Amino acid sequence: MSARKLGLNLVMVVAVASLFTGLWAWFNQPLKAPDWPDHISGYSFSPFRLNQNPQDGTYPSEAEIRADLELLSSQTDNIRTYSVDGMLGEIPRLAEEAGLRVTLGIWLSNDLEANEWQIQRGIEIAKRERSVVRVVVGNEALFREEVTVEQMIGYLDRVRGALKVPVTTAEQWHIWEKYPELARHVDLIAAHVLPYWEFIPQEHSVDFVLDRARELKKLFPKKQLLLAEVGWPSNGRTRGGAQATQADQALYLRNLVNQLNAKGYNYFVIEAFDQPWKASDEGSVGAYWGVFNAERQAKFPFTGSVVEIPEWRLLATASGVLALLGLALLLIDGSALRQRGRTFLTIVAFLAATLLVWIAYDYSQQYSNWFSSLVGILLAIGALGVMIVLLTEAHELAETVWKHQRVRTFRPVTEENAYRPKVSIHVPCYNEPPEMVKQTLDTLARLNYPDYEVLVIDNNTKDPAVWQPVEAHCAGLGPRFKFFHVAPLAGFKGGALNYVLQHTAADAEVVAVIDSDYCVEPDWLKHMVPHFADPEIAVVQSPQDYRDPHESLFKKLCYAEYKGFFHIGMVTRNDRDAIIQHGTMTMTRKSVLDELGWADWCITEDAELGLRVFEKGLSAAYAEQSYGKGLMPDTFIDFKKQRFRWAYGAIQIMKRHAASLFLGKGSELSRGQRYHFIAGWLPWIADGLNIFFTLGALLWSAAMIIVPNRVDPPLMIFAIPPLALFVFKLGKILFLYRRAVGVNMRDAIAAAVAGLALSHTIAKAVLYGFVTRSIPFFRTPKMRSSHGLLVALAEAREEVFVMLLLWGAAFGIALTQPQPSLDVYFWVGVLLVQSLPYLAALLMALLSARPQVEASSDEVPV
Length: 862
Fold this sequence. Notes:
Blueprint: H1 3-27, E1 43-44, H2 62-72, E2 78-80, H3 91-97, E3 101-106, H4 112-128, E4 132-139, H5 149-162, E5 167-172, H6 173-178, E6 188-192, H7 202-219, E7 224-230, H8 246-263, E8 266-269, H9 279-282, H10 312-330, H11 339-364, H12 370-401, E9 423-429, H13 434-445, E10 452-459, H14 464-477, E11 481-486, H15 492-501, E12 510-513, E13 519-520, H16 524-528, E14 537-541, H17 553-575, E15 586-589, H18 590-596, H19 605-615, E16 619-622, E17 628-629, H20 636-656, H21 658-663, H22 671-706, H23 716-741, H24 745-757, H25 759-771, H26 789-795, H27 797-816, H28 822-834, H29 836-848
Parallel strand pairs: 1-2, 2-3, 3-4, 4-5, 5-6, 6-7, 7-8, 9-10, 9-12, 10-11, 14-16
Antiparallel strand pairs: 12-15, 13-17, 14-15
Helix pairs in contact: 1-10, 1-11, 7-8, 10-11, 11-12, 12-22, 12-23, 13-14, 17-23, 17-24, 17-29, 20-25, 22-25, 22-27, 23-24, 24-29, 26-29, 27-28, 27-29
Subcellular location: Membrane
Pfam families: Glycos_transf_2
GO molecular function: hexosyltransferase activity
C-alpha cells in the first residue's frame, strides 16, 4: 500500500473515530442541577440487600441495618419503614442508636390475620421505642383494593386510640381526593406523588409534585401534609415521556429536594437503597428507586454536573479499540477497495462496536440472578454473533460495490486454437418428466465443441414409462449419448455421479455436470473448457440461470432472489478463489474427480467437492456469463425444499470440515477461503438462531398479556441486535440488487420478499443440520401442474401459524397494556417486524397457486 493511501486511511479512521467519540460526548453533555442539600427531610428505608427478600424470609442482619442507618444519618434524621415483619421490627431500636426518628409502617393486605399481627406488633413497637414519631397504617392498600374504606377507617381508629403519636395511612394523592372522608380519621395527610408512574417527563415532574401538593393542602387545609413518597427510578421501562435513567433520577431528585426544602415540606425520598426483590411485584423498574444502589454506592453525583453515562469516556475508548480490531480483520487484503468502501467498513465497524459496548454496559446496570445471568450470557453470545454476521454482510457489500476491479476475472475464451480436451458431460436424472430431459439432451447435441460425450444416469426411477423414453431418445441422438438406468442405487445424487464416473471415457480430461432441466448454449464448452489450460484450475463454474421467470409472478420473485447469489456472492468469492461449486453448469478436472470422488454422505455433494478441491490447494474459476438455463420450482413447497437441502448440506459440510475451516488443520485453505466459506453460511446460521428469538419473544409476550401489571416489555437491548441485522440485510438487498445486479427497485423488493419467505425453512434446515447426521435426499420437482389455494396455504402452514401468533401477541399487548409507552410500542413493532418473513412466505405460497397468470417483464407485486 502506498504512503499516500496509508495516510488517507489513517485520516479516515481518525475522522470516523472522532465522529463516534463526539457522539458519545454529545449524548453525555453535562447537565446543570442544584447540589444535593446537606439535609433532606427523610428517606423511605428498606434494608434488604442482594439475595435478600422478605417474601422468602431472608432478612438483613443487625450489623447490616446499623451500617445502613449510619450512612443515612449523614443526610437526614428521619426514615420511614413499611412493615414490622422479622428484623424490620427492630429498625426503630437500631435507629435510636443512630439518632434517627422513625415513621413506622404497618403493612396491610387482604390477609386479615396477617393484618391483625402487624397492627398488634406495630402498636407494641410504637409504645416501646422513643424513636417512633408517627405511624403509617397501610401503604397503598386502598389503591391495590386489598382493603375497603370501611376496613381502613376501622384500622386507623383502632391504632389512633392506642397511641399518642400521630397516625395516618399512605396512599397515592388521587386516592385522598377519591376518599376525602379518610381525613377525619387521620392526624395528617400522607400522600405519594410519583410523576414517573403517571407518564410525566422528568423536566415537568417537579412542577407536577408541587401542583399536587398545593391541591392537597387546599383540599385538606386543617391537616398537615406529608409527601410520604417522592422519587424517580434509575432504570427500567419508559412510561410515556418518563424515562427511567440515572441522569433523570439525579436531575429530578436534586431539583425536587431543594424546592421542597425551600418551601418547608415534609417528605420522604423513595428510597434510600435499591431493592432488587421488588422487581417481582413492580416489574423491573421496582428494583431501581434507591439513591444508593444495592451495594450502598451513590448512583449519581450529589454535586456538580450530571451526565447520562458517567463512564462514557471509558466506553468510548473500549468501543474504539473493538472497532479497530474488527476493522483490521475486514481490511485484510483490502487494497483493491476504493476509499468509499474502506470508509463504509470503518463506519460499520465503529457502529457495531459502539452498539456492542452499549449493550454490555446497559446490561451491566441490571441486577442479576441465575436466570438473568444465563440470559445475559446468551444475549452476549447472540449479540456478538449478530455483529459478526452484520460485519460479514457489510464486507460483501463493500467488495461488491467499491472494488477498483475484479481480482480474478474469467471471460469466455474464443480463440480457435485454445485448449479444448475431451469432455464427458454427466446428466443425473430421477423421475424427471421425459419431455423436459429430451429438451436438455437436444441442446447438448447442438454443442459447438469437437470432442465430448454425454452420459445420462437415471437412478431409482421406478416407472419405466418415465425413463425408457429418455433411453430411446439417447439412442436416437447417436453414439455420443449413453444412457444408464440403475435401481437400486444408494448415495443420493453423489452416488449416481460416482457410478457414471466409472463409465466415463478413458481419454476424457474434464467432467461436466448439468441438471436434467438445463438447456445449454452451443458455445458453453468451447468458451469455458479452455480455462483448464491452467494446471492449477480444477473447477470451472458458470452461474445457474433460469428460462421461465415470466411464467408467473411467483417465478419472477424466485428469479430475482436467485440472481443475488450468482451475481453478487459468487463474484466476490471468486476474487478470493472461494466459490461454492454447485451441481449444474459445473466442470471438474477428471483426474481430480477420480481422486476425490463425489461425497455420497452429503446432501449437497457439489459444494462439498468444491471445498475439498480448495483444501488440496487447487483453484476454481467462475465466469458470470450464463451458458445454460433451467427451470425454477413451480410451487412454494418445492422452492422451500430446494433451499432446505442447500442449507442442511451447508451445515453437514461445516461439521465434517470444521477443523480445516475454523483451525486450518489438514488443508491448504487460505485465510480468504476459510473466511468466505464460514461467512457465506453465517447468515443462514443467524436465521437458525432467530427461531429461538421468536420463541422467546412469544413466551415473553404471553406473560405480558396474562399479567400486564407485573411483566414489562423486554429491555430494548434484547431486540436491537436482531432488529439491526434484519434492517441491514434488507437495506443491503435493496441497494446491492440495484447497484450490482442492475435491477429496478421493484425487482429488488421482489428479491427481498422471496428471500424473507425462506427464512423459516433455512432456520429449520440449520437446526436439523446441527442435531442430525443425514436426511433423505429429495429432488426439486420441475414442470409440476398447478395446485389450488388450499394446497398453497398448506405449504406455508407453519409460517402462517407463527405469523398469526406474532400478530396475536402484538394485538394482545396493545389491548392489555393500560397506558402503552415507548418501550411497549417498540416491542409491538419488533413483533410485527419479526412476522414479516412469515408474511412473505404466505405471499409466496399464494402466488405459487397462480402459475397460470402471466407476468409482464416489469410486473412485481409490492
